[in-house]
Request: fold
Amino acid sequence: GQQVMQIPQYQHVQEGEDFTTYCNSSTTLSNIQWYKQRPGGHPVFLIQLVKSGEVKKQKRLTFQFGEAKKNSSLHITATQTTDVGTYFCASRFGNEKLTFGTGTRLTIIP
Amino acid sequence: DTEVTQTPKHLVMGMTNKKSLKCEQHMGHRAMYWYKQKAKKPPELMFVYSYEKLSINESVPSRFSPECPNSSLLNLHLHALQPEDSALYLCASSRQGGAGEKLFFGSGTQLSVL
Reply:
C-alpha cells in the first residue's frame, strides 16, 4: 500500500537547538498535513500544505512542501520543552483515507 | 482540549467479553473515523463513515463492528478480541470527509485485552 516515510525516527535535542523532520513519498501527493501528538495524548492538526514549493510558518515552526510534491519538512527553531512529542505527516492517496507517516519522536534535553 | 469525546478512557477486557467504545462530536461534522494506534506507531485507519454510511473498511477483522447511529455518534463494538488488539483506539471527525479536511481527534480509549 501507499506509504509515507519519515526521518529521523527519533531526535534528541538540547533545548534551544533546532529540529527538522522530513517526510518522503514515492508518489506525488495532492496535499500533506502535519499533526503533533504529545506523550499520552492524541494527534492534533498543525497545518496543511497544498501547493508545490509552498512554505508556511507558525511562530517557530516552518513547514515546506517540495516542488515535486513528494516530500515535506517541518523545522522548529530554538526548541522548547513544550515541543516534545511525535510529529506525523499525513496525506490522502486519492480517496478519503488519510495515511500517516511513520512519525518522528522529539525529546528535549533541558 | 478536544471537541471529540471518547468513552471510556481506559478499558480492560477479557477475550470472551463484549464491550463498546463510544465517540461523540457536536461540530456538525459528517465524516467520522476509527483509528487504531499501537505504542510508538502511527495511527492506522480502521473505518470511515461518511454521512452515516460506512465508506471505508480497511479489512478489519469482524470482531470489530462499527456503528454510526446518527451524525454525532460513532460506536465500535468489540467481541472476542485477542491480546494483540490491545492498543489506543482513536476516534476522529472531519467536516465532510473531503481530501483537504483536517481531522479532529478524540483523546482515545486505551484498550487492554487479557
Notes: The interface with chain A takes residues 2, 31, 33, 40-45, 48, 50, 55-56, 58, 90, 97-100, 102-108 of chain B (CB under 8 Å).
